[in-house]
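User: These chains co-purify. Model them together.
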Amino acid sequence: MSFTTLLMTLVSSTLVYAAPLIFTALGGTFSERSGIVNVGLEGMMVVGAFSSIVFTLDFDKTLGNATPWLAILVGGAFGLLFSLLHAVATINFRADHIISGTVLNLLAPGLCVFLTRIFYSGKGQTPVISQGLDKVTFPGLSKIPFFGEVLFTRTSLIAYLAILISIVSWYFLYRTNIGLRLRSVGENPVAADTLGINVYKYRYMGVLISGFLGGMGGAVMALTITLNFSTNTISGQGFMALAAMIFGKWHPIGAMGAAVFFGLAQSLSITSAYIPLLSHVDSVWFQIAPYLITIIVLVIFLGKAVAPAADGTNYIKNK
Amino acid sequence: METGKNKNAIIIPLLAVLSGFIVGAILMLIFGYNPIQNYGSLFTGAFGDIFSIGETLRNMTPLLLTGLGFAVADKAGFFNIGGPGQYLMGWFGAIVFVLHFKALPGIVLIIGAILVGGLCGSIWSGIAGYLRAYFGTSEVITTIMLNYISLYYVNYAIKAWLAPKGSDSSPSIPSKASLNTAFLQHLTNNSTFHWGFFIALFCAFAVWFYFNKTKSGFEIRGVGLNPSASRYAGMDVKKTIIVAMLISGLLAGVAGALDGIGNYQNISVSNSTPSVGFDGMAVALLASENPIGMMFSALLFSALQIGGLSISVFSTTPSEIVNVVMASIIFFVAIRYAFEILLAKGIIKKSNKSKEENN
Amino acid sequence: MAKDVVEMRHITKQFGNFKANDDISLTLHQGEILALLGENGAGKSTLMGMLSGLLKPTAGQILIDGKEVEMDSPRDAKNLGIGMVHQHFMLIPAFSVLENIILGDEPLKQGRIDYKQAEKDITALAEKYHLDINLKAKVADITVGMQQRVEIMKALYRKANVFIFDEPTAALTPQEIEQLMKIFRTLAAENKSIIFITHKLKEIKEAADRCIIIRAGKVIDDVMVADVAEEKMAEMMVGRKVRTTVDKEPVDQTKTVLEVSGLNVEKDGLAAVKNLNLTVHTGEIVGVAGVDGNGQSELIDALTGLRKIKSGSVKVNGKEYANHSVREITEAKVAYIPEDRQTVGLILPMTIAENLVLKNYYHAPYNKQGILNYNKINADGRQLVKDFDIRSQSEKEAVGSLSGGNQQKVIVAREIASQPDLLIAANPTRGVDVGAIEYIHEKINAERNAGKAVLLISFELDEILKLSDRVVVMHAGEIVGEIDPNHTSAEELGLMMAGQKKTAAK
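Assistant: Joint model of the three components:
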């Protein structure tokens, strides 16, 4: 393998692994910025993965090439519906955020495999989809010497979209008034309330956006990597996305950066065999790396972290 | 007031369980299955004969222990989601110990395996406890991360050191080191029921005693409820957090060890972290972390899991319906506030009525 | 006469069976500064909560500019030109001052916040009303005084005509209070109207035109400030004559119990206590006066082992205890009544009895080989509940269900029952009712009369002057002087609290 080809493989596989994490980590950012802790991202991804696969299997004949792209939106929509549970429990019924999130993680695999068995004659996994998200070569951009080949040839379009969405998310959260208000209910809901900001509304917004993005993340995972749905389709990506969000200090760009970094670590566990210096390192270290690094980073750089001040607290309005 | 609260402590879990079953029933009805038949097979699957009972009690063992582990940490204000990893490390440690010291007498192997398993579990949780106590690192994140690290590490270690070439499982332990003795097999019609069950029951009583009667348990409750006040009272908050976390991991590790030498007899590569660690959380939450109550919640969830297998035997209903029921139960426990509102309204209505009657 | 901008008619507010406000009526004229005087729990904040849209009255009407209104949220109040400055500022520390001001009413330009426009508008307002604020700074980094000005600016930015201030001077330095009074007058001169809630009579005398006195949810009187003496207002507030002295018996005050020398303590890397020397003898109460945030908390934390000492010595009965553990210091017969009873002094969900043994549960007879003797714990708890008149159903009741005053009594009982040589008390009566205040003062004084050493830290000058044998004043981490409480004036104390060292030779 030539150096450029190697780099291209590394970059594109990094992006492939990063894309689901970026979406989901952004989702976590929205939820926690509004003050609702979201350890249920994993469950939201499961629902997104399941619904996108079912959609693709049902409609790829009629919708053709557009199917996987629509399937991502379908995954997002079902993720959003699913996150309603978390929103109702934490915002209206004062549930502990971590317990409620854990319920999502317990419920999603059970429910989705239950439905899989019903839809696909008792089998615990769906058939493989024929129409996944293929790698693309950007016209024009790929012609740029070196960079074109490394960054824009046979690469993941959805990952670039995810990066774009992280920038849009940043703009939304930090430049618009809705973003300012959403963050304010995550910092000090009582203060926000005195200014006439509807705490419940903005917290719902945060959780539902997170459900949408988490569902999209699960869909991207299923449509690019596993290509079917089973209990193992989502195995820890949601938690990794949660780590990426924290690693990125609850900031959309930071979360995206951390997700890309985790994507790199995952990609190295597969591609390292081709990289001269790394080929002797056992792949287990690359599998462990993202988790280990997260812990180390938390210990060294974050300590007590910088979560939104009211993250995880229930807001109880006086009547 | 106080008695009212105590009443709610029993009524709300019962309502949650009932609601969970109703959700399951509705789901089955939607897809054209018969909930009564299925809940019937669930019940006979779990308690129908001595074999089923043996299986249910065997499956209850790790649930109760990981639940106790979660509860001990949570009482100290420490949200230990690391049950799966600690359980896995305990399982791994126990099997490695037995395979390594095969020559020793059976009883030594069994005690050693349980101790080593507990130790491995508590080292694993101790890392998170130490980081939280001295660096303030969120234990929610570290324990989740440690779950995955243990998964990949154990998988790697099994393949690299334990399993014969081409296999994904370690060799089985010698039968002298197994907790599933011939006597118990005979007694329970060849079920996998093993002595570990009694160890788990003993642990539940021990944890209850620890919380309610000991100085160390008092400190754990104090630190969990209010760390600043505990520090002001002269308690060593950091030490207490670490102690709680070590006990928590110890219990999860023992769960893994008992399952290892009682149920599986070996250890295999797995795709995901053992779900029993998370299920233990459900057990603890349903019983509001009361160790005695947890015996019942562990029995319930175990019965759901074991009985659930029969659902798909006697009908086409997917057995995952029990996972939905379990998750729903915890959901209803989590939104207990909703029940409190309902109960409060109900009670107000009742008392108004009785007033009218008095008039 | 100026027109009425606010009229509240026969307002009643009920929480469950408890009537927080009982048929209260009040009016506020344009350009007027009205004081609302009452004790903790008298119902002042509840009343203002209804005027600011946070709470809804159970009965009664509110008229703004002569029109009856109904407010469902603070937003409604804002639209009616009512601005509230809460006692605990409603600010977001992580946001900038500018973001805090515009939050909820952001000027927009093509979908994004128009920060330039906002800055222009606010700067203009700041100039008009002489409010010194730094728009770019993070709220977490600015002083309490500036935070208050930010709150005032928030209301001005929302075009408020009526300003409600809840205990506005609680956390301010004397200079900042003076500035605030100036701002009040500027606002009134611009035809804005002000209601401020307080229990400090001096401020009312200084700033208010009129004063409404509230007790137990009812209006007691409505007076023009110029016509009534402070003592009379105090009596109306409390409902009876208040004892302003305690009986001090002659005791031996020669033996040194606490000796602090050259003490240096840091907070977040900054010097919080600087080279401090202090002695407390047997049978005396030494009061530490000062404005909040001048190193008092750090001093106590250092003395009690809760905070690391950088250098210096702390001797108790002649033995060195600097940087010893909390428990070692407790064992040295040092008791400590902390300022924050709910987050430091007590574990609210635990029982009264458990809280009473919080500092000695590990001793026999409560602890035997790691097992606690709950029979003994509960029996002793029952006795203390009786001795200290802690109003509760049983010693097994959760401490959190007691009233503030009774919670404080639990702490006082625990600390005094430990028979200390040195009692450290930090704001021991903050936020409790007058009855409990008198009780706690008696108990602290009784310790003094029994020959114990007492170190009292308080932000309430009255409390310091009433109890202390000697008073030292703390400013910016240093003791700036010592005064005799019987021969001082509020002016002298105020100046020293502001940092002016005592010049006259002692």
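Chain A is about 70% helix and 0% strand.
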